[in-house]
Amino acid sequence: MKKILAGLVLAAVTLIGSNAFAQMQKPSKPCIVLVHGAFADASSWAGVIKILRKDGYVVIAAANPLRGVKSDGQYIGSLVGSLKEPVVLVGHSYGGSVITEAANDHPNVKALVYVAAFAPVTGESAADLANKFPGSTLGPTLAPPVPLSDGGKDLYILQDKFHAQFAADVPVAQAALMAATQRPITEAALNEKSGKAAWQAVPSWHIYGAADKNIPQEAMAFMAKRANAKDVKVVKGASHVVMVSHAEEVAHLIEEAAAAK
User: What is the pTM of this model?
Assistant: First the structure.
């Protein structure tokens, strides 16, 4: 009898311990999904990822196809839909248009973070927003469009213009590597009208550089105000790739969004 009781006690202790361990294994923080923009790739989030992982977040830096707002949004939305935990969706540049689309119909998206990014309303394109206010100098730095088999065109930034235009506050050698590995975007994607604006239902946070040459600072301030952003950070002297040159500031804003109730 004593042996039976001892066995039951041991089993109970083991079960309680197992349940406690299982509870410990459940992620207590949202998953962070990072979406890069045009002329960049997922590696542009490397510094941000390092900080977020150190602080206990699960991070996915998705490969944005850069083919079209609706199709790219559906692609990222499929990834978000596969995740069980709450998600903070973060978009850079054109990636902002993508997360605006991707968050729709996914109730696990708890926050949107726009990093030097477009936050379009329904029927608005990235090109519309970039040209809404003066200041963008991107156009003259683009290489001749690359014709595609489907009749579309791919756009790249000329490598010798990339540093000054896109990443002026990044070391020259690093910017040269970014220029060589840049991902092109279709001309159609930049001109495609946005669908339902997720930021109208999901709270948003915004951060951008005061020295951004791709998207005018006035345009980003306008979008943040229109979205009734929970917080807006303007990084003095930062270029369009603020997540590369100021990873700590970007990571901290993402964590602020993740912690918000």
Answer: 0.90
Q: What is the mean pLDDT of residues 135-163?
A: 98
Number of Cβ atoms within 10 Å of the Cβ of 23: 9
In eight-state DSSP terms, residue 126 is H
Q: What is the largest CA-CA distance in the chain?
A: 87
When computed from its CA atoms, the radius of gyration of the chain, rounded to whole angstroms, is 21
CB atoms within 10 A of CB 228: 10
pLDDT surpassing 80 at residue 188: yes
Among candidates 109, 101, 56, which has minimal Cα distance to 82? Answer: 109
Q: Is the dihedral of CA 74, 242, 249, 233 positive or negative?
A: negative
Structure tokens at 165: 């235009």
Alpha-carbon gap, residue 152 to 187, rounded angstroms: 7
CA–chain centroid gap for 162, Å, is 21
d(CA 118, CA 98): 9
Q: Is the pLDDT of residue 16 over 60?
A: no
For the chain, what is the mean pLDDT? 92
- The CATH class that applies to domain 28-259 reads alpha beta
Residue 132: both structure tokens together: 């809404």
